[in-house]
Amino acid sequence: MPNRSADTLFQLIQSLERSEKRNFKLYITRNTGSNDLKIVQLFDALEGMKQYDEDLLLKKNPTLQKQQLSNLKAHLYREILASLRLLKQDENVDLQIHEQLDFARILYNKGLYLQSLKLLERVKEFSKANNQATYLQQILFLEKKIEMLHITRSLQNRADELSEEVEEVNRRVELIGDLSNLSLQLYSWYIKNGHARDDEDRAIIEKFLEHPAIGAAQHEKGFYERLYLYQCFCWQAFITQQFLSYYRYSQKWVDLFHANEKMISIETISYIKGLHNLLSAHFDLRNYQKFNEVIQLLEDFIETPEVQQNKNNQLQTFIYLYTSRINCHFMMGTFSEGLSLVPVIEEKLKEYEPFLDRHRVLVFYYKFASLYFGSGLYDESIDYLNKIIQLKVDLRTDLQCYARLLHLIAHYELGNHDLIQYLLKSVYRFMYKMKNLSVVEEKIFGFLRKAMRLNAQQIKPLFEQLLYELKPLEKSSTANRAFMYLDIISWLESKLSNVPVQEIIRKKYLEAIS
Known about the structure:
The chain is mainly alpha-helical. It has 28 helices and no strands. The protein has helices spanning 8-14, 18-31, 37-47, 54-60, 66-88, 93-109, 113-129, 133-149, 158-193, 199-208, 212-217, 223-239, 243-259, 262-266, 268-285, 288-302, 305-308, 311-332, 335-338, 341-351, 358-374, 378-390, 397-414, 417-433, 439-451, 456-470, 488-497, 501-513.
C-alpha cells in the first residue's frame, strides 16, 4: 500500500505561497552548495504532488534513495523554515526580539559586553512597548549574567534596579500564566462538553473563577492581564448561558484591542476571536443592528495585510465569517437563501482540510443540517446529521446529542415512523449517558413516543400541549440549553400554523426590527 499519511514536510510545502516558494529557491541557491541539489529535487517533487505518496515519489525520482529520504526530508524541512524565518521576521514582534537576543548573545560571546548591554537595553524597551513580558525575562536574565560576571559599568544601585525589574516581570509573567491557564481550561471544557447541562456543570465553571489570579488581575492595567481576564469571564458567561455578561466581556475584549491598536498586528488571532465572540453574543441576544455592524467590521478587517498575508489568519477569518453569515440567515429566517453558502463553505473546507480541526467541521455540518431542516429539505438535513453521528470523536458531546435529536425530528417530518420507534430508545440512552436530558428533552421524547400512535387530526392537541409546556422554559436558566441548538418553539408554531418554519422565524425577525 502507498504511504499516504499526513506527512509534515508535504503539508508544509503545500501551505507555501508562491512568493514563499520563490524565496526558498533564492535562499537555497545563495546559502548552500551543490550537495543540496537533492533537497531542491525533493522540494520540486513534493510541490507537484496532490497527495503524499512515498512509493510514487521514489519511483518518479530514482536519484532519491529510500535510505536517504528521511535525512533529506529533515534537512529540507529545516531549510524551508529557515527561509521563512528570514522572509517573515519583520512581520512578527517575537521574531524580531529573538533576532536581537541572538545578536546580544553573539556580542557577549565575542567579549563585547558593553555593546551587548546596549543592545539589550534597546530590545528591552521594544519588548515593554509591545507588552512582551515573557521576553523581558530572557533579556533580564542575560543582562544579569553580564553584570554579575564582568565589571561593565559603575552606575549606583544597578543591582537593586535589576532585581526590582526581575521581580516585577516575574510577578506579571506568573499572573499572565495563571490567567491564560484558566482561560484555556474553560475553553477546553466547552469544546468537550458544550454549554453547561445542569447545576453541577455550572458549579464546576464557577469554581474556575475562584482562582486567586482572578482577584489579583482586577486592578491590573497590563494588556495581557486584561485580555486573559476578559477571556475567562467571557467563556464562563458563554458556557453558563449568561448572554448579557457574555456580550459585555466580548465587547471589553474587542475594545481592549481598539485601545491598543498595535496589538492587533501582534495578537491578530486573539483579536479575530474577540470579534467572533462579540458576533456570537449579538446573535444570542438577537441584537440585529449590532450584529450587522460587527460583521462589517470583520469583513473590513479581512481585507487588511494582517489577514491577507497570513494563511492562519485567513483560515480563522473564513471560519468565523461564514459561521456568522449562516447565523445571520438563522436570525432573519432566510434558510433557503442561506443554502447558497453550503457549496462555497464545503469547497473551502476541502481546501483547508489539512489545517482544520474536527470541531470546526462538526459545527459547520450541524449548521448545514439546520439550514436544510429550516428549508424543509429533511433528507439533505439527515445527510449532514449522519456525518456528525458517524464521526467518532470525543468532543462537543452537545452537538452529538442534538444532532441525534434533530435527526429524529427530521425523520418525523418525513413520516418514517418505524425508523423513529427504533431510534427513540438508542437516542434516549445516548443522551442519558451524556447527561444531556433536561426537562425540555424529556418532554420532546415524550411527545415523539405519543405522536407515533396518532393520526393527523389527533396530533394537533399534542403539539399545542408541548408548546404550552416548553414556552415558559425558553427563558429558564436551568432548562434553556436545548433552545441553543434547536428552535423547537418555532418548529411547533409552524406545525400548528401549517406554514414552513422559516416563515415563522422570518415573521419574528420582521416584527423585532419594525
